[in-house]
Amino acid sequence: MNQTNEFPSYRGTMRYKCLSCGATYPIDALYYTCPDCGGVFLLEDTSFSSLAEKHDGPGWRKIFDARAATKNTALRGIFRFYELMAPVLEAEDIIYLGEGNTPIVRASRELEAYAGQPLAYKNDGQNPSGSFKDRGMACAFSYLRHLVRKHGWKDVITICASTGDTSAAAALYASHVGDPLKSVVLLPKGKVTPQQLAQPLGSGALVLEVPGVFDDCMKVVEYLADHYRVALLNSKNGWRILGQESYAFEVAQWYDWNMGDKAVFVPIGNAGNVTAVMSGFLKLHRLGIIEDLPKIIGVQSSHADPVFKYYDQPAEARIYAPVKVRPSVAQAAMIGNPVSFPRVRFLVDQYEQLGGVFHVVQVREQEIMEGMLRVNRHGHIACTQGGECFAGLLKAREKGFLDPHDLAILDATAHALKFIGFQDMYFSNSFAREYEITPGRELHNAPQELIAASRKEDLDEQAFTREAAERVVARLGLADKHDHY
């Protein structure tokens, strides 16, 4: 087989498996929760162990590395790792809009000195719709296209609840596929940035606003998925989790499959991404593609921290309880009852049994906001969730969760421009009291008027240019170009 361009021949035997009662269901229908007990599903390939018989760890590394140069559209994005994700799809099912292969950027010396730790950002905001959600949507919509082709379905309504990124990604991929898919998104009214609201509208989705927070929207779409024929695209959709596993595969490949002395930081919102990251590294480890499991450190704001509260309890006394959220600049993480929490608990147990390390840290809103501003002042394009990861890194060091030589890999889940309004609020000191953010002078920045508009009316063009330039010279203390350095 031409390992670079030919589509893989392997086909898995996939099924839904309930994490609560153990019931299994076939994949030729849409399932989100267990019909028997209401539990959450994981998708599993019952033939996965046969992959170890096809190739050893180095053999799989060679295949995946060769595919990095492919010009086969079906393998260019997240499906470079086809055998590890959804190996039931045909090449004609797969959607590629440029998702995946996002860069990992090592931090500057100044930022590392401030953090006291080697660190890098994986800029998932450079996905097509500007967030990591495109990874999951590429897989979920490829599966939907597979079902539509197989069953001849007509008029398929795709639906999701969102704080912004999910709706943007869902609407984008639905608009690309077109008929018979139609996109509907539910957003919490007034809780989504203007930039994020503009995205599903621009892609032509039907946008419905609901009073309250994300959890309220989620209850509505869950009810619809339970009682009506709709394709749910939130992280209860197991195909989305499979697509997001590609994040872990790409991180491992970038570091030549050596995950020793690495710590991967992931913000926890609906808990889908941290679930996917753990699952991805577990798959790589089971096939011998990586020898070491990295530390995984989830991060939550004190305004939405049910997973932190659970793992902050002694192991023998842990009880999970949803929390009532408060406003957060990390809007994608402002979820008080993550639907993927059962997956987190299940996978953490497996991760730790294999010697992996998992922690959750809690950070304050002030730390999140200033984390975003600080890393972006050092050449990154991190969103507030990326700031949350940086704040989590500082807290993890404080807690002693990191060794001095560990490389921290931080997840910038979305592009900074999606959350630019929060930067403006910091600079203008206009946060509402419930955010608990008091801007400091060190990170403040604002435009400064160079010359009054009235001077432009008073002077001719040459005189105006000279006066404006002289004011720049005075402001910056510039030396004449003929002076020696």
From TrEMBL:
Xref: SUPFAM superfamilies: Tryptophan synthase beta subunit-like PLP-dependent enzymes
Keyword Aminoacyl-tRNA synthetase: no
Positions bearing N6-(pyridoxal phosphate)lysine: 133
A GO term, aspect molecular function: L-serine ammonia-lyase activity
Superkingdom to which the source organism belongs: Bacteria
Gene Ontology biological-process entries: isoleucine biosynthetic process; L-serine catabolic process; L-threonine catabolic process; threonine biosynthetic process
Domain Tryptophan synthase beta chain-like PALP: residue ranges: 96-405
Pathway annotation: Amino-acid biosynthesis; L-threonine biosynthesis; L-threonine from L-aspartate: step 5/5
EC id: 4.2.3.1
Pfam families linked: PALP
Catalysis performed (reactions): O-phospho-L-homoserine + H2O = L-threonine + phosphate
Keywords: Amino-acid biosynthesis, Lyase, Pyridoxal phosphate, Threonine biosynthesis
Cofactor list: pyridoxal 5'-phosphate
Family: Belongs to the threonine synthase family.
Name of the protein this chain belongs to: Threonine synthase
